Write the structure tokens for this entry.
Amino acid sequence: MNAKVHKQVKARVNRVAGQIAAIQRMVEGDRYCVDILTQIAAARSALDALGVELLTNHLESCVLGHGTGTEHQCAKPMTRQQLLAEVQTTLSRFLK
């Protein structure tokens, strides 16, 4: 992950963490259920956006860039079929 993407991902993670902390404070403060549910929806949306950003980066660097040296340092050498299987598994988990 390049430095720009890393910074964007980190900012999104921090935003989600803040939203989760806000939900916790709302529950502890016995806030109105609808307000808590609204905050949960916002956190879900933020998590989805984070997932899309990470998935896009993975496809660009690790799948399309496989074998070019642009993939993540932890990426394992794989065949095209293995890469496809990994993407299918990742998508099915992400879309649940």
Summary: The chain has three helices and no strands. The mean pLDDT is 91. The CA atoms of residues 1 and 57 lie 7 Å apart. The radius of gyration is 17 Å.
